[in-house]
């Protein structure tokens, strides 16, 4: 039996092996998965890389592949939100998530817009801040440093959380990333994780693109009750 070739967003790396093990146990179909920023993965597909199913951290990239005739079907399978991770010893008793972002003495790292949906969602969040506090969102766009998720970004070591690594290595004191990482980040006592409230936060919807009919069973599995429970256990919503 042919092994399915999967390209999946990097933020799925923690849950994906468990998902694929359950899928293989149910279907008998094996998979080989490669991970990366979803925008860069989409470009690789457009350039001819073999892929049966693309799991993206947004709905836009699957839709683009379908519009170009590269994907046969698309669908939504889970969602995420954003959170702020801070170096604990820089947080004062008067700080909250927004005051930390606006502090001039702190460096803010993000993922890279257009290459990685996490960066796109972060810029959307800055837009939400701008709508409610004129000038603040634009200030944050100028301040933010997209250090990961791009073609020439800093290489985060395998198995490391970008937020923890960037902060521990001194590249920044703050990082905006996916809330699904929050349970793992909270295991590190040197870090403090802040929830970003709904009026400002951005729903991050994940979608799949089926590029080969052979991937239809996997596309269906991603929305099954078993898969949805696994995703929720790993912090997705």
From TrEMBL:
<dbReference type="GO" id="GO:0030973">
    <property type="term" value="F:molybdate ion binding"/>
</dbReference>
<dbReference type="InterPro" id="IPR050682">
    <property type="entry name" value="ModA/WtpA"/>
</dbReference>
<dbReference type="Pfam" id="PF13531">
    <property type="entry name" value="SBP_bac_11"/>
</dbReference>
<protein>
    <submittedName>
        <fullName>Molybdenum ABC transporter substrate-binding protein</fullName>
    </submittedName>
</protein>
<dbReference type="GO" id="GO:0015689">
    <property type="term" value="P:molybdate ion transport"/>
</dbReference>
């Amino acid at each position: 039996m042919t092994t399915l070739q999967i390209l999946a967003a990097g933020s799925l790396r923690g849950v994906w092996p468990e998902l694929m093990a359950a899928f293989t146990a149910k279907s008998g179909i094996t998979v080989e998965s490669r991970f990366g920023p979803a925008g860069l993965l989409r470009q690789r597909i457009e350039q001819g890389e073999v892929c049966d199913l693309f799991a993206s951290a947004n709905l836009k990239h699957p839709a683009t592949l379908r519009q170009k005739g590269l994907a046969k079907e698309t669908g939504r399978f889970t969602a995420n939100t954003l959170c702020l991770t801070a170096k604990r010893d820089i947080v004062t008793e008067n700080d909250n998530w927004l005051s930390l972002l606006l502090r001039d003495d702190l460096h803010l790292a993000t993922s890279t817009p257009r290459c990685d949906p996490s960066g796109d969602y972060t810029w959307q969040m800055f837009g939400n801040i701008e709508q409610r506090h004129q000038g603040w969102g634009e200030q944050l766009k100028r301040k933010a440093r997209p250090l990961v998720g791009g073609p020439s970004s800093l290489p985060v070591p395998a198995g490391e959380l970008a937020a923890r690594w960037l902060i521990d290595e001194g590249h920044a004191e703050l990082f905006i990333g996916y809330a699904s990482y929050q349970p793992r980040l909270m295991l590190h006592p040197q870090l403090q994780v802040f929830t970003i409230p709904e009026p400002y936060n951005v729903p991050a919807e994940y979608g799949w693109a089926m590029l080969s009919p052979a991937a239809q069973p996997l596309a269906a599995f991603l929305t099954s009750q078993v898969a949805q429970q696994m995703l929720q256990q790993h912090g997705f919503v």
